[in-house]
Amino acid sequence: MIYVPGPGRSGGPNLQSPVLLKPQLGHGKKEQSTMAGEEEVEAEVEVEQQQPCPPPLLSKSAQKKLIKQQRYEAKKAEKKALLKEQKKKEAERKRKEWEDKLAAATEEEKQQLIESKLSLRKERMDQRTEEKGKKMQRLTEAKQNGQNVVIDLEFGHLMNSSELHSLVQQIMYCYAVNARCNSPAHLWLTGCQGEMQDQLQRLPGFDKWIIEKENRPYIDAFQDQKERLVYLTADSETTLDVLDPNHIYIIGGLVDRNRWKGLTMKKAEDQGIQTAKLPIGTYLKMSSSQVLTVNQVVEILLKYLETGDWKTSFFEVIPQRKRCEAESEEGDNDIERVEKTEGKDDHEFERCDIEREEETEGKDDHEFKRQCIES
């Protein structure tokens, strides 16, 4: 029995008037079918929500760039693996050669060979210790008289862990290259906080680096020298002709993968500080944009401080794959490079190219880390 409202005296609902409704044939089945259909729709919606959204469609130009980058990475990995295997074989060959030499020698000759090897190792260790002392002295003097170069690390929140790791490797290379220079710069790390700071702290020997480490932003660290700040950005309309020892040059520490275009320029404009770009277009054409990695910019500045020549600095640092063609009044340097490479075996030339690219994009092998620790 189901109660339905009936009309009362005033025309309103009368909830006390019972009416017995006869069930209609097939009505229950229809309701069950409708409910089952709704449950299926809800299940499909849940499945769609759980599935990841398909990646956005790329333009033809973006697809070509992606394919080109993937091919380059695959080829680079293949060459790097080949070089590693060759180094391993060379080490094995030298070890076997040493064992054969000892096996063929008399007891007296063995003793002499071992003493000679120990003496050579001690000589190398003494030389390394001497070089370390000279590096420490040069870096200490650079803190007083060197060109101030700041790496701005305030963009850590815009990068993922992989990109932060890549930037840390670049910073490690910056320090090692600077330590090897005869006239090193006075390097600064500013705005170093969060995961960026944690990754840097995990670097071997980081606490012993002779480098300025500031948790504060550079705008606060140099609040009394704002007029001397110059942000180096490819978006600037001002070209950097010479390095002024009185200026403090800032490099944006950002591995952006082309996601944050114009970010450093906007930041400098908002802060009201000067901007400048390297005179790359005057000496060569880039195959794509003029955006370089942090370590490449630092090395270019160091080369310029050493040679006073922008062209030499660009050609020695910027990888060949990023260059399109050189704009030069004199072709003597190009001819010399051709003559030097003509006599090289193709395999040897490829090996040098791989080593050069690894240096400019950030080393992380054992030997490189050893240099950073000793620096």
From TrEMBL:
- Which residue stretches belong to region Disordered? 1-65, 326-375
| Domain of life from the UniProt record | Eukaryota
Compositional bias annotation for Basic and acidic residues: 334-354, 363-375
The record, for CDD domains, names:
SPOUT_Trm10-like
Q: What is this protein called?
A: tRNA (guanine(9)-N(1))-methyltransferase
* Coiled coil location: 69-123
Domain SAM-dependent MTase TRM10-type residues, every copy? 135-325
Acidic residues: compositionally biased ranges: 37-47
Q: Which residues of this protein are catalytic?
A: D256 (proton acceptor)
Q: What is its EC number?
A: 2.1.1.221
Reaction(s) catalysed by this chain, per the record, are: guanosine(9) in tRNA + S-adenosyl-L-methionine = N(1)-methylguanosine(9) in tRNA + S-adenosyl-L-homocysteine + H(+)
For this UniProt record, the keywords arranged alphabetically read as follows: Coiled coil, Methyltransferase, S-adenosyl-L-methionine, Transferase
- Quick one: a GO biological-process term for this protein? tRNA N1-guanine methylation
Q: For this UniProt entry, what's an example GO CC term?
A: nucleus
Q: Please give the Gene Ontology molecular function terms for this protein.
A: tRNA (guanosine(9)-N1)-methyltransferase activity; tRNA binding
